[in-house]
Automatic annotation (TrEMBL):
Keyword Cell membrane: no
Protein name in the entry: Putative dimethyl sulfoxide reductase chain YnfF
Domain named 4Fe-4S Mo/W bis-MGD-type: residues: 5-62
Enzyme Commission number(s) from the entry: 1.8.99.-
Superkingdom of the organism of origin: Bacteria
C-alpha cells in the first residue's frame, strides 16, 4: 500500500444473508483491495474469498461497462458502438413510446431481480418509474426466496425470527439445507463457539459440505425429501411422548390436522425415500428429545424442490412441536432482518401502481416474451440488477426469447454479461462503491449505510440517477421523481425507530452498524419478547392461507418422477455469488460436476475427465470430480456459471426445467433436474 492510499468503509451488497461490512483500500480512483471490517459485529472483519479476489476486477476490469452503447450487429454478436447518454435515453423513450402507443403501457416489462441488495440500488426510483409508466408488474420471489419466506410467514407471520448470534446459547443446532461456509459464512463462527460450549451440530444436506466435516452428525439426505424426514420426526417424537403439549396448547393452532398428516410418514419412508438409515434417524430423534435449547438454521436449498415449501415448514415446525421457543438459544434462525424498520412501500412508490395492472411470475418470463396471444404482448423489456441467461431455468428458451428481433431489449449492468450481450441498448451502472446506499440485511439484524469510496467509473451512473433521467425523459416530474439519494435513504427506513436515536437514516455513520432489536431494546425471542404475527396470533401448524391459495394447509411430500439416472443439484458457488463474478478469471474455464465413485465406476468415468451432462433440454460440458461427498445417483455442480465455461455454450441452467414448480408460491424447482452423463 502506498503512502497515498486510503482505507474507507463500505458494505457488501451482494445477494447473501450476511451483508458484510468492508474496508476498501483506494489508491487514486482505483480500488486495490477489499477486506472485511469490524464495523458490523456479526461479520466482524471476516469476508468471503470471492469478494476479496474478484471485486477489484469487477470494478475496474475489462468486462466493466463504462459508456452507453447500442447494438450494431446481429443480436448476440457482441457488436456495439458507443453513444451518448442523451442518445441512449432518446432511443429508449422512442421505442418504449412506440410500443405503448400501439399496445398500451403493459407492453413494457421491467426484468430485474436481486443484483445489489442496497435499498436504493435494489428497488427505489426504478420501481417508481415503471409504476408510473403503467408497465406490467413482476412477481420476483418465485425465482428464489419466496418459498422460504412464505414457509416462515405461514407459521410465524411477519415477526422477526432468531438472530444467528443467539445460537451460541443452543445445545443442539440443525443446519438444514444451508451450505454455511459458502453462502452464510459467519454462521460457521457461531457453530464453532456453540460446539466449544458443548452443543451438538447436525448437518442435513444432500452433499457432505465442509461444515459437515466439523459437525457431530451429517445426514446425507436425498434431494427434495426433507419433508419426509421432518414429518417422520414429528410422528416419532409423538410416539415417544416427547411433544411439548403445554406449549402446543398455548402457542399453536392446527396441531390435529398437522399430526394427522405427519403420522402417515414412517421410519421405513425415511429409509426408502430419504435414503437415511434407521439408526441415524433414531439418533437424531434422541438428540432432539435430549435438547433443552434447539436452534434450526435453514438455507434456500430446500425450496428448490417440488415439496420445498412443505420441507421448510415441516423443519421449522419441529421447533414448535417440541416447545423450542421462548428461550435464548432456541428457535428458527430466519428473518431476523424483519427487525429493520423498512418502509418499502414509501421507498418504491407503491401508490403509483395503476389499479388492475397485470402481474407475471418471473419464472414464466421466457414464455411470456414469446407469447403473441398475450393482450397486450410484451414488446419491450429492461434487464437490470439481473442476469437471467445465467440464472433462470431452461436457459436455451430464455436465450431464444431474448433473441427475438421484434423485442426491444434495454440492458443496465456493471459488466458485460451473457444477458447484456443480447440487448439493443446498454446503460452502464455504478457499483455500490460509487454511490450512496443503505442496507438492511435479510440474514441478520444490522442496519448499515455506505457512501461512495471512488467516483463513478467512466460514464456509469447509479441506478437511482438512471431512472431519474428516464423519468424526466418521459415527463414524470412529480416529487417522487425529484427525490435525491439522501431523500431516498430517509424514505427507505422509519426514522422514528428508537434505535436510530433521532438520527435520520441518511445520517447513520458509515463506519458502524446498528444492531436492531425490538423498539424497547429487548432481544428478539419468539414466544417471549416476540409474538407470532399470524391471523391467530399463534404459530400456525395448519395454514388456512396456504390451503386456500395452494391446497397445502399442512406439509406433504409429492415426488417428481425421475426419468433419467441422475438428479442434478446446483447450489451456491465458492467462486461466485449467484452469477456475480461469473466473468472473473476464477470462474472462467470448465466448471466441475461432482459424482459418487460408485456411479463413476459403473459408467467407466475417471476423475478429471471431460464429460457431457444432458437431457431433453440440452447438453453441457463439465470436468468430472469423483468424490463420495456426493450421494450415489446425485450430481453436484455450483450455480451461476456463464456460457463461456461450456463448449456447448450452455450452462447447467439449460438442463433445469422451467415447468416443474414448488408446492407453494409456484417457485422454480432447480433441484428437480434429471440428467444422464457420457464421456465427451
Amino acid at each position: 500500500m502506498t503512502q497515498h492510499a486510503k482505507i474507507l468503509p463500505s458494505v457488501c451488497p451482494l445477494d447473501c444473508p450476511d451483508t458484510c461490512s468492508l474496508n476498501i483500500t483506494v489508491e487514486g480512483d482505483q480500488i486495490t483491495q477489499v477486506k472485511g471490517s469490524e464495523a458490523n459485529p456479526y461479520t466482524a472483519g471476516v469476508v468471503c474469498n470471492k469478494v476479496t479476489r474478484a471485486y477489484p476486477d469487477f470494478v475496474h476490469g475489462d468486462k466493466r461497462l463504462t459508456h452507453p452503447m447500442k447494438r450494431t450487429g446481429p443480436r448476440g454478436s457482441g457488436q456495439f458502438e458507443r453513444i451518448t447518454w442523451d442518445d441512449a435515453l432518446d432511443i429508449i423513450h422512442g421505442r418504449f413510446s412506440a410500443a405503448i402507443s400501439k399496445h398500451g403501457p403493459e407492453t413494457i416489462l421491467p426484468f430485474n431481480y436481486a443484483g445489489p441488495h442496497g435499498e436504493l440500488a435494489g428497488g427505489s426510483m426504478d420501481r417508481r418509474f415503471f409504476y408510473k409508466l403503467g408497465a406490467s408488474l413482476l412477481n420476483r420471489g418465485p425465482l428464489c426466496g419466496a418459498v422460504r419466506g412464505t414457509a416462515y410467514s405461514s407459521l410465524y407471520g411477519a415477526a422477526p425470527g432468531m438472530p444467528p448470534e443467539q445460537a451460541v446459547h443452543a445445545d443442539l443446532i440443525l443446519v438444514w439445507g444451508n451450505n454455511v461456509t459458502v453462502s452464510n459464512l459467519h454462521m460457521t463462527r457461531v457453530l464453532k463457539e456453540a460446539r466449544s460450549k458443548g452443543a451438538r451440530v447436525v448437518v442435513i444436506d444432500p452433499k457432505r459440505i465442509k461444515q459437515a466435516e466439523q459437525a457431530d452428525m451429517h445426514i446425507h439426505i436425498h434431494p427434495g425429501t426433507d419433508v419426509v424426514l421432518a414429518m417422520a420426526l414429528a410422528a416419532e417424537l409423538e410416539r415417544r411422548d416427547a411433544l411439548n403439549m403445554g406449549f402446543i396448547t398455548d402457542w399453536t393452532v392446527g396441531f390435529d390436522a398437522y399430526m394427522d398428516q405427519a403420522r402417515s410418514y414412517t421410519v421405513e419412508d425415511v429409509k426408502t425415500i430419504c435414503r437415511i438409515s434407521a439408526e441415524q434417524f433414531h439418533q437424531l430423534a434422541d438428540w432432539i428429545v435430549a435438547a433443552e435449547k434447539m436452534a434450526t438454521s435453514l438455507g434456500n436449498g430446500m425450496e428448490r424442490g417440488r415439496s420445498g415449501g412443505s420441507g421448510l415448514r415441516a423443519a421449522m415446525a419441529l421447533q414448535a412441536l417440541t416447545g423450542q421457543h421462548g428461550h435464548l438459544g432456541a428457535g428458527v434462525i430466519a428473518k431476523s432482518g424483519l427487525s429493520v424498520p423498512k418502509t418499502t412501500d414509501i421507498l418504491q412508490g407503491s401508490h403509483l401502481i395503476p389499479k388492475g395492472t397485470r402481474v407475471f411470475n418471473i419464472v414464466d418470463i421466457a414464455e411470456k416474451l414469446q407469447d403473441e396471444t398475450l393482450d397486450p404482448p410484451i414488446k419491450a423489456t429492461m434487464i437490470y440488477n439481473h442476469n437471467p441467461v445465467a440464472t433462470h431455468p431452461d436457459q436455451a428458451n430464455m436465450i431464444k426469447a431474448l433473441m427475438r428481433e421484434d423485442l426491444f431489449v434495454v440492458g443496465c449492468d456493471v459488466a458485460m454479461t451473457d444477458s447484456m450481450i443480447l440487448c439493443d441498448v446498454i446503460l452502464p451502472a455504478c457499483t455500490h462503491f460509487e454511490h450512496d446506499d443503505i442496507f438492511g440485511a435479510y440474514g441478520q439484524n444490522y442496519l448499515q449505510r455506505a457512501a461512495p469510496v471512488i467516483p463513478p467509473v467512466g460514464e456509469s451512473l447509479p441506478n437511482t440517477e438512471i431512472f431519474r433521467r428516464l423519468a424526466a425523459k418521459f415527463g414524470f416530474d412529480g416529487p417522487e421523481f425529484l427525490a435525491s439519494d439522501r431523500d431516498l435513504m430517509d424514505q427507505a427506513m422509519d426514522g422514528a425507530h428508537p434505535q436510530l436515536n433521532g438520527q435520520s437514516p441518511s445520517e447513520i455513520a458509515v463506519d458502524r452498524a446498528i444492531g436492531m432489536t425490538l423498539r424497547d431494546g429487548s432481544p428478539m425471542i419468539m414466544c417471549d419478547t416476540v409474538k407470532p404475527a399470524t391471523p391467530s396470533g399463534r404459530i400456525e401448524l395448519f395454514s388456512q392461507n396456504l390451503e386456500d391459495r395452494f391446497g397445502y394447509g399442512v406439509p406433504r411430500f409429492e415426488p417428481v418422477p425421475q426419468d433419467r439416472r441422475f438428479a442434478l443439484i446446483t447450489p451456491s458457488s465458492a467462486k461466485r455469488t449467484n452469477a456475480t463474478f461469473g466473468g472473473h478469471a476464477g470462474s472462467l474455464g470448465p466448471e466441475v460436476v461432482e459424482m459418487n465413485p460408485a456411479d463413476a465406476h459403473d459408467l467407466g468415468l475417471q476423475d478429471g475427465a471431460e464429460v457431457t451432462v444432458f437431457n431433453g433440454q440440452g447438453e453441457v460440458s463439465f470436468t468430472l470430480s469423483v468424490t463420495d461427498a456426493t450421494r450415489p445417483g446425485v450430481l453436484y455442480s455450483p450455480k451461476g456459471t456463464w456460457r463461456a465455461t461450456s463448449k456447448t455454450g450452455l450452462t447447467a441452467n439449460a438442463l433445469i426445467p422451467a415447468g416443474i414448480r414448488t408446492d407453494i408460491e409456484d417457485g422454480a424447482c432447480y433441484n428437480e433436474t434429471f440428467v444422464d452423463v457420457r464421456c465427451s
